[in-house]
Write a structure and sequence with these properties.
CATH topology of the largest domain: Aspartate Aminotransferase, domain 2
Bound molecules: pyridoxal-5'-phosphate
Shape: globular
Strand content: 15-25%
CATH architecture of the largest domain: 3-Layer(aba) Sandwich
Number of strands: 23
Number of domains: 3
Number of helices: 17
Largest sheet: 7 strands, mixed
CATH class of the largest domain: Alpha Beta
Helix content: 25-40%
Strand order of the largest sheet: 10-18-17-16-13-11-12
Radius of gyration: 26 Å
């Protein structure tokens, strides 16, 4: 598309490729938007400029951390006009009819500037593209660029983007009942609980709003379980144990969330250190090593052992059957609870509804936390538990205003049904294997490639060096991916509805780019 614009001034301060005569300077510059974004809408210096959506700036500064854009404003009478924003919205108004209504007229630079100036900087959005809409495994940014989304909102969008059947369910519920608090019964919550207990080891479900909240709840439930147990002990046992078991055990490379309790269970020191003191009493054991676990699980002290049946954030490490069975046994022998964190690996990601179900009844937990994909992107968390844990909890012991609301539960009901449709989980298994095989084949001989590992569609590529440059190159070439572990693992968690053709396309991009940028 072509745009004639006289009034926008952009100065790329460093790292960018734009320079040139300034025909018209900003009278007033408000806000320096330090952005890492490409912004191919800012190539007009008082002359006719040709703007294509994918050329110019994007090739030189896409995601470049060092480019900063000064956006001009000028005063016209009493109106302070955001010149850049106006130009950007002009350029985006060309969106085709296929672009949904709410994704049209997204002002890239304004979004980036608002974020950079107003949103707390807890995510280093190295590639600050503005995602506007999606369909299935594909999504688009505000520049019209198309991506295969192998991030799926960090293992969340299991049905992909803008799933029509889910959208209908959500719209219908939104027109019916959004929120009631937990003071009253609602059908979506009750039916979802019934469905979740019927599909799992559990007798009861507790709803919350996120993965970290689900793990916090597990800690509280475990503590209350041991507290009640202690109350019922004989006097002599109480004298022996002195107090209820309160401690926790979790594993190296594990990730359980960012709130003070869940953070204490999380391995990465850089996440924990600045916020100490956290919840006291957690000890880390080595993942996959029963001897290491046996050393730290202590009768009368350990309340609960937390483990991911397949570690995600920590680097994509699926546990083997012997490890989980052994942990179950150790917990039973030491009278402590076993909690599986299936926030990332649960609900179909591994090709099983619950990741531990691959192994079977011998390793069933007492508690299980789930979240991410449960409502395909609406915020929900959930703890599934055995009756003996539920028995310890009383009204008032825990709760949440929003949790288990009708909207999110109706969405989750739909997701759970869809994931259990005939053939769905088998497809995850087949396509997961296909993805791993294709990657191993395509990366053979790469000097920094170590291995492909994972289970179902939770897949990681281990490199000998940081995979950040590859994430960036994949993004530039139309594939969204993230890292895991120390940053040396490329994590692939596409929507569970991904097809073989989309896998082929993604593998091609990864392999081509790996041979280009990781050498
Ligand atoms: C295994 C695991 N547990 C817990 C969490 C925290 O979930 P949330 O970000 O919803 O709080 C995550 C998030 O990545 C996770 O992967």
């Amino acid at each position: 598309m072509q745009l004639f614009c006289r009034s926008v001034v952009v100065v790329v301060q460093s790292g960018g490729s734009v320079s040139g005569p300034r025909r018209e300077g900003p009278r007033r510059t408000r806000g320096k938007a330090t952005t890492t974004a490409s912004s191919n809408r800012f190539f007009f210096f008082g002359k006719k400029a040709t703007l294509t959506r994918t050329t110019q700036f994007s090739s030189t500064s896409f995601g470049g951390a060092s480019s900063s854009v000064v956006v001009g404003r000028r005063r016209r009478g009493n109106v302070v006009e955001d010149i850049a924003a106006k130009a950007a919205s002009v350029s985006s108004s060309s969106s085709s009819e296929s672009v949904p209504k709410y994704a049209r007229n997204v002002n890239t630079v304004q979004v980036q500037r608002d974020e950079n100036e107003c949103v707390l900087n807890t995510y280093g959005r190295g590639q600050s593209r503005v995602i506007t809409h999606g369909k299935g495994v594909v999504c688009f940014d505000s520049e019209g660029k198309k991506y295969l989304d192998f991030t799926a909102g960090i293992a969340v969008n299991c049905l992909g983007h803008a799933d029509e059947r889910l959208a209908e369910v959500i719209a219908e519920q939104a027109k019916t009942l959004l929120h009631t608090s937990n003071l009253y019964h609602t059908q979506p919550q009750a039916t979802l609980a019934r469905k979740l207990v019927e599909t799992s080891f559990a007798d009861r479900a507790f709803f919350c709003n996120s993965g970290t909240e689900a793990n916090e709840a597990c800690v509280k439930f475990a503590r209350k379980y041991h507290y009640m147990k202690f109350q019922k002990m004989s006097k002599s046992d109480q004298e022996f144990y002195k107090q209820p078991a309160t401690e926790t055990v979790s594993f190296k490379n594990g990730f359980h969330g960012r709130t003070m309790g869940a953070l204490a269970l999380t391995w990465k020191e850089q996440y924990r250190k600045p916020f100490e003191p956290l919840m006291p009493g957690n000890t880390f054991a080595t993942y996959g090593d029963l001897k290491s676990a046996a050393k730290v699980i202590k009768r009368g002290k350990t309340a609960v052992v937390f483990v991911e049946p397949a570690q995600g954030e920590g680097g994509i490490f699926p546990a083997d059957a012997e490890f989980l069975k052994g942990l179950r046994k150790l917990c039973d022998e030491n009278d402590c609870l076993l909690a599986y964190d299936e926030v990332q690996c649960g609900l179909g990601r591994t090709g099983y509804l619950w990741a531990h179900q691959k192994i079977g009844k011998e390793c069933e937990p007492d508690l299980l936390s789930a979240a991410k994909p449960l409502a395909n992107g609406l915020p929900i968390g959930c703890v599934l538990m055995k009756q003996k844990v539920a028995d310890a909890m009383q009204p008032g012991d825990h709760g949440s205003t929003f949790a288990g609301g009708p909207l999110v539960c109706q969405a989750a009901l739909h997701v759970v049904d869809r994931v259990q449709e005939p053939g769905f989980l088998d497809n995850v298994k087949t396509n997961g294997k296909y993805l791993k095989d294709k990657l191993a084949e395509g990366l053979k001989g790469h000097p920094m490639f170590k291995e492909v590992r994972g289970t179902g569609l939770l897949v990681g590529i281990q490199f000998t060096d940081m995979a950040g440059p590859l994430v960036k190159a994949c993004g530039e070439n139309g594939l969204l991916v993230i890292t895991a572990g120390k940053g040396d693992v490329l994590r692939l968690v596409p929507p569970l509805v991904v097809t073989k053709e989309q896998i082929d396309e993604a593998v091609k991009i990864i392999c081509e780019q790996a041979f280009k940028v990781m050498v």
